User: Which sequence fits this backbone?
C-alpha cells in the first residue's frame, strides 16, 4: 500500500532530511519525490510504500503532523487510494 506525503512551509535547511529520516525510522520506503521552492516557500510531495511500516498510516500521519508543528511546516499523510478517490471527477 502506498501513501502520499505533502510538506509545505518556509524553506529551511534539513526539511527533506527530517521527513526522510522519519520515514526510515518507521520502515517506510520513499518511492518517488518531487520538491520545489517558490520564493521562500518549500513544497514537497512524496509517494511512499507503507505496507511494511512499523505503525499504521493514521499513526504515521499523526506523527508527521506533530513533526510539522515542531518545524513550522504543514505535513499531511494520506493513503494513496484515498488521495486518488478525492481527485476523481
Assistant:
Amino acid at each position: 500500500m502506498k501513501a502520499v506525503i505533502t510538506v509545505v512551509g518556509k524553506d529551511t535547511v534539513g526539511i527533506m532530511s527530517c521527513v526522510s529520516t522519519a520515514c526510515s525510522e518507521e520502515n517506510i520506503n520513499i518511492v518517488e519525490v518531487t520538491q520545489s521552492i517558490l520564493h521562500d516557500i518549500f513544497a514537497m510531495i512524496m509517494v511512499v510504500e507503507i505496507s511494511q511500516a512499523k505503525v499504521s498510516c493514521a499513526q504515521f500521519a499523526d506523527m508527521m503532523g506533530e513533526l510539522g508543528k515542531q518545524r513550522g511546516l504543514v505535513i499531511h499523510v494520506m493513503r494513496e487510494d484515498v488521495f486518488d478517490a478525492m481527485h476523481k471527477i
User: Anything to note?
Assistant: The helical segments are 15-25, 57-71, 80-86. The mean pLDDT is 94. The beta strands are 2-10, 29-38, 41-49, 73-79. The first strand starts at residue 2 and ends at 10.
